[in-house]
Hints:
The complex is a heterodimer of chains A (801) and B (237).
Chain A (H helix, E strand, L loop, with lengths): L1 H30 L5 H22 L4 H28 L11 H31 L4 H25 L2 H4 L1 H15 L6 H19 L12 H6 L5 E8 L2 E7 L20 E6 L2 E7 L4 H8 L15 E5 L5 H8 L4 E6 L2 H7 L2 H8 L3 E5 L2 H7 L4 E6 L5 H4 L14 H9 L1 E12 L6 H16 L8 E5 L3 E6 L6 H13 L3 E4 L11 E2 L4 H11 L1 H10 L23 H6 L6 H4 L1 H26 L2 H4 L3 H31 L2 H23 L7 H26 L4 H19 L2 H7 L7 H28 L1 H20 L11
Parallel strand pairs in A: 5-6, 5-8, 6-7, 8-9
Antiparallel strand pairs in A: 1-2, 2-3, 3-4, 9-11, 10-11, 10-12
Helix pairs in contact in A: 1-2, 1-3, 1-4, 1-5, 1-7, 2-4, 2-23, 2-30, 3-4, 3-7, 3-8, 4-5, 5-26, 7-8, 16-17, 17-19, 19-20, 23-30, 25-26, 25-27, 25-28, 25-30, 25-31, 26-28, 27-28, 27-31, 30-31
Chain B lengths: L1 H16 L9 H17 L5 H9 L20 E4 L2 E3 L2 H10 L7 E5 L5 H9 L2 E6 L2 H13 L4 E5 L12 E6 L8 H5 L1 E12 L5 E8 L5 E9 L10
Parallel strand pairs in B: 3-4, 3-6, 4-5, 6-7
Antiparallel strand pairs in B: 1-2, 7-8, 8-9
Helix pairs in contact in B: 2-3, 3-5
Amino acid sequence: MRQIARPLAVAFISAGSLAFELLLVRLFAIEHFYHFAYMAVGVAMLGFGVTGTVVALAGQVSHTVTLRLFLWSSGAAAAAFVLVPFAVQATSVDPTQLAWDLNQWLKLAAVYLLLALPFSLSAVTILTGLTLAAARPGYIYGASFLGSGVGAVACVVSLWFLSPVRALALPALLASFGFAVAALTVERAHRARMMALAMMGAALLTLAVSPWRLTISPYKGLPQVEAYPDAQRVAEQSSPLGWTVAVAAPAFRFAPGLSLGFNGAFPQQTALFVDGAIAGAVPEVGSDAETSAVLDWLPTSLPYSLGPAERVLIVGSAGGLEVYNALAHGATHTTAVELNPDLVALSRTGRLMSAERDGRLVWVIGDARGYVARTRQSFDVIVLPPAGSLGSATAGVYGLAEDFLHTIEAYGEYLNRLTEDGTLAITRWTSLPPRSSIRVILTAAEALRRLKPESVATGLVVARSWGTATVLVRPAGFTESEIESLRAWAAKRLFDLDWYPGLSEPAIRYNYLEEPTLFLAVDAAVRGPNSSRRFSADYAFDVAPVSDAQPYPHRFLRISSLVSLLSSDRGSWLPFAEWGQIALVATLVQSVLLAGLLMLVPAAFIRDVRSGTGWLLLVTYFGTIGMAYLAAEIAAIQQLSLLLGHPVYAVAIVLTGFLASSGVGSICSDRWAQSTTWKVCTGLTVLLVVLAFTLLSVVHMLQPIHLALRAAAGVILIVPLAFLMGAPFPMGIRSLTGRQRSGVAWAWAANGFMSVVTAPLAALMALELGSPALLLLAATAYAVAAVIGRAGQLRYLATPR
Amino acid sequence: MLLNSRRLLLGLAWLAAAVPVPGQDRSATHEGRRQAMVDLIEHRGVTDSATLAAMRAVPRHEFVPADQADRAYADHPLPIGYGQTISQPYIVAYMTEILEPAPRMKVLEIGTGSGYQAAVLAEIGCDVYTVEIFGALARSARERLDRLGLHVTSRHGDGHFGWSEAAPFDAVIVTAAAGYIPPALVQQLKPGGRLVIPVGSVYGVQNLILVEKDLDGATTTRNLLPVRFVPMLSGLR
């Protein structure tokens, strides 16, 4: 009984931990901004690492004490999953005040400690479980992996039915089950069993009375629009894709880049938000004339000035504003692709439903890249509106804010789906200094060059309003009469045409920039790829086109030029421009400091640690495999999310596939000879190197096939890798059998703390170098582990104690 | 371990002691802090003497909540309630300078907030009209401006429609972020007038934009710098 109960308890506790971690990611993404989601991962790993240090420092404990620790840590973890959210709510942190309010730092530190507590307690359960099953660590570690996989699936499923705050009952409930099962491993534990039942009751109670009240940053869109007079929340949906809210507010107006020349009335609109951030606007029923009038004065109407467009594809149609626009301009077949079904449901009002009925409109719920790869249809106009992908990108399901809609490969696929005279129209907000609009220009030019090199000079037009830039790409090229139409249309609306075929010098008349940067960018792109590369290299920000291997089109800061930018006159622009990347660097620095402070400093005071190189080799082995696992997992999730085309499927299949396969690998590893550890690590090195160079090509090749086949292919790609990745940790632990117990604890601490450091490091590496580099990092880390394993150096303290 | 815990507690106590305590050393230092704040603004490139003199004179600490008074002269925005903020002093100075203010110039401000921006313009001698959407903020700003003896015409209303009864204006200053440039504000600008407004994505970083209407009534825009503001609201509250 105990043989099953112990790993089962570990599995439940691990499931609770992972569900809690994923829910924290969701809650931080909703309450604050996307970047705070990293904090959740960091906090979880920090909690795990601290446990290792504490147990190592505590030294030898008896078997009875270990048994009791196993039981009561699981109970304390279950209680912490219930109580910690209450305590965090009581410690209200305002991250926007961190720059000047020291109190906020103290509160943030308190929140960190509070949130780390349940993870620490869970780690005690797993660690003591490993200690109690020293001969078969793979059995316990495998159970932890499998439990984590179940926790991931349970969390994703729960978010279809519950809001993230109510879903917090799930980790508490799972951990309570773990406590109850752990109570079966100890004789005469009646009190623990009763308490476990009470804990389950408390967890269920939090379903009704949620411990967490959503406190959304006042700088996010939702609280601001809800402060409008007579604003009313009219709909609210929750799914793993995000928390979607519709707010009807008479004073709400959404018109990206509206012409200064517009004099008409505004139609009523309903605001749509995903995770508290604006995702679009729904024109209300009965205001068709007003809606059409406004739409014609938006920059996104530019492609329609070229003539009738019968077949239109809208990529990221949140709210339906651009769908209205296409219909208003006479499109007879409009296809609107949107990933979030809740946004589509809220957008389906009056006229759009009528258009659906008469066949003029088709909604496609799914990923635009996947749709474009699969469809055989051609379109006269393909539209990427300014807020097209934001709703999805900020949904918080991804561990990294990648966007596959604005890569060279993506633009290439859009161009391939155009009719002979078709036009791709991409509109972006113009940041200051211009960044995203320039990247769109250079990416579009590169995609056009790959498709039809001779069209680069004749197939690009760039229009700019006071706040947006619209890039038109037409492989067939623009005729003189079409250029005249565009010029007349833009001039009437006080928009500048920064570029059109034949323009030889900047011709800005209405909206002045300090420099005619957009003209210079297209001019460089038209001159050729070398000129384009030189332009990017000389620009203050990184505006070079991005590929699917490094899908971060919204990243513009070169970390290498951070110091020179800060010391320039415009250093003060950075906090506005690149807050996310700076926060990530700060997180990495903080993680390194914390890991050093909480592991290396205490270790320095331990005599046994100081006495030789054994400890260093031990922590290097477990540290490198911790780093390798996380780096490989992040890279695989990123590349396979392109294959699966849906963040929920990606998380569900990739994360669960990873954890479950690793769990099985871990359990199997108990039967493998100790001496094969280095072979496993070497095998992983080879596998990861192969994947680094081939995975993305395989993904591109498989993209057009059916989802079920893609999912199966994803699993096949993951399983061998993840299976082997489950083995190095328990095999390493097994080599410590019979030696000082603190060796296991240090191994645990090293693994946990290296994961703390790897979470932001991997994110930064993916941003700076791309996901193949992450796979190579993981390969290198396993190579180091192989060398240590081969040398048989996992013998921290040679004498058994 | 115990020793380490004590060290940790001492460290936390030291950090707690470093937190400014409201009420400490307040009135004696406001003047000095204000001068230092304006010196910093001048150092950062604002040169308009009227703007700088006005900011040296207007007691900014009167425009922030009492518990924020110690931070009133630091160069960052502060919350003033209702999810609104008093802008960073540098931005106030920068936007004021952009307007090229002069005595008797007729200026419309959208977003009274605490009343600080209106006070700076009034101190320069401008004929200031200011509109605030939040009734409570409009009332408290009105009382504050009266108490300080600054002549400002204010009202509780919807900034999107400007102030047509008092139009046209030599300048319009919008101190809350708008999702687009409201047509009414451009229309209520005199030929030769200037409008400064933070626009762009309402829910992220906005670009500070200068709209100029030439003597023929033609409008042009100029992107100045990125800023963050609370959004401009419409309708009454």
